[in-house]
Amino acid sequence: MLRGLHYQLGKPQGKLVRVLSGHIWDVAVDLRRESPDFGKWAGFDLKAETSAEHLQLLWIPEGFAHGFLVLSDTAEVLYKTTNIYHPQGERSILWSDPTLAIDWPLGALNGISPSVSPKDALGKHFLEAEFPPVEVPHLV
User: Which residue of 10, 32, 46, 51 could cross-link 89, Cys pair, CB 3.0 to 4.6 Å?
Assistant: First the structure.
C-alpha cells in the first residue's frame, strides 16, 4: 500500500509519526515556497518498536506534504497532529510526480505494483499543486 503525498491548506498540520506495527518508508516534501528546500523530499525507514528496535518517531512540520509506502505485509501508523483534520483544505500531490522524482523503494515489493487509493491516484502534479500561502513575518 502506498499513501499519497497529503497536506492541508487553511489548517496546516505538523505530524509526529510512529509505526505501531510493521515497517514503512515515510516521505516528507517541503512545500514552503520561501524555503531553500522547496520541492525537495526526504525519505525515512520507520519500524515498530521491538526488543531489537528502539522507538522511532518522525516529526514533519507544517508546510510539508507527507506520504508513505508499507514495506511489510501490514502496518499500523499513528499520527499526533498539531491541528484538526480539515477536509475542505485537504490536497494531494501525485506520489509518482516526475518533478519530485521521489526514489520510492519499490524494489522491496518484489515486482508487485503498490496499491494506491483512487483518491491518491488523482493527486495533482507538483507544478499544478496549490501550495500553502507564504508567511510574512510580523514586525514588532
Answer: 10
